[in-house]
Write a structure and sequence with these properties.
The chain is mostly helical and 177 residues long. The protein contains eight helices and no strands.
């Protein structure tokens, strides 16, 4: 998309279209980095607010990269603790205080819960770059090209991160069987 007055980010219709295209993905990106649902929503809105404030300086074709970069920086500014440690602390708190919903088959429910815990732990153990790429692809359905543009990386880098993530996840889940 060539940057012209007709597709300027400062035009409300262009800005609205950018919001519709990228809001969910930016919010999920923040969530995958470790933000809670409310925090991810707040930071996503702040990223779009900054895009609006900088609309004259950001070409429309660079808006997605701008949003993901700003959102990532906002997250880092807001979060001073290691997100993996925090995620485990929250998970542990939920496990010690949570009450399981009744099920017709308690054994199946326990097995399902343990599998989810193993998957969550395996994902949390991934390096942030691998985890982010994996979740953007598998949860948001983004292509490698879309992820590369959003994170301002090469498609090869995305492919490598995804390959390493899949290898690590397979190994982690295999070792726990």
């Amino acid at each position: 998309m060539e940057s012209t007055a007709s597709n300027s980010v400062c035009r409300e219709s262009v800005y609205r279209e950018l919001f519709q295209l990228h809001a969910r993905r930016v919010r999920n990106f923040l969530y995958y980095k470790g933000a809670g649902a409310e925090e991810a929503e707040d930071l996503m809105q702040e990223a779009f607010l900054r895009l609006w404030r900088e609309c004259e300086r950001v070409p429309a074709e660079k808006a997605a990269a701008f949003l993901f970069t700003v959102a990532g920086n906002l997250f880092l500014d807001a979060r001073k603790h290691d997100q993996v440690v925090l995620k485990f602390q929250r998970h542990a708190a939920r496990q010690t205080t949570g009450v399981s919903a009744p099920s017709e088959n308690p054994h199946a429910q326990l097995e399902h819960s343990e599998t989810l815990d193993r998957i969550e732990a395996a994902l949390a153990a991934l390096p942030e770059g691998q985890r982010t790429v994996f979740l953007m692809n598998r949860m948001d359905g983004m292509t490698y090209n879309e992820i590369a543009q959003a994170l301002e990386l090469s498609v090869k880098a995305i492919e490598k991160r995804m390959s390493l993530a899949l290898k690590s996840l397979r190994q982690a889940l295999k070792n726990r069987d």
